[in-house]
Amino acid sequence: MVFTGFDALALHGAVRKGSVTSLGCLLGVGKEAAVYEAMGMGVVALKFHRIGQQSFQTVRRSRSYMPQYKHFPWIFASSYSARQEYDALTALHAEVSVPVPVDINRNLIVMTFIHGGVPIAQATLENPDDVFAEVVENISKAYLLGYIHGDLSEFNIMVDGKNVWVIDWPQWVEPSHPAAEEILQRDITNLCTYFSRKYRIDAQVEEIHAQVVG
Known about the structure:
The chain has helices at 3-17, 53-62, 74-92, 128-144, 180-199, 205-213; strands at 22-29, 33-40, 42-49, 101-105, 108-112, 118-119, 157-159, 164-166. The chain is an alpha+beta fold and 214 residues long. The longest helix is centred in the last third of the chain and has 20 residues, at 180-199. 39% of the residues are buried.
């Protein structure tokens, strides 16, 4: 079994359930996932989690939900990762600007498609102060609901011209996690550093941290 076969099984399961009717183009590939456009009840995004040899050891060390067995198949690791993100999106989407989860099968999450959305790393923001404030508001709401993103950066914050979206949640941790304070601090530092460097926004990490946990 390789990722192509596992992806095909997951896609077949989603098709049988009716959440996917046709597969579209590849939107992007990262170390841990591949994202496609597709059709279901309208346009949807398909995210295939792929925790492979290159990233598995790092993921196992950094994510507390990943079993610490010496031999833990990548198939299960990828399914765990998908379930972790699906659970976060399910809990957050009513209050936080995240994609709405539609279905999950093995390592595949079917979710709403962000039309016209691009990562802020690829955009020139006309209103960076407003976008920054909206991101802080969203991570504050997520924190109050018990979720710290864990990997926040300019590559998983998207804008579509009107709205801001925080994506990629498989690495989230609870505020009660032993390393939660360090992880939250890193997320906020990444956010402040990016907006300060590109848009000269004077955001103090301590102040934003107090606002998030406040």
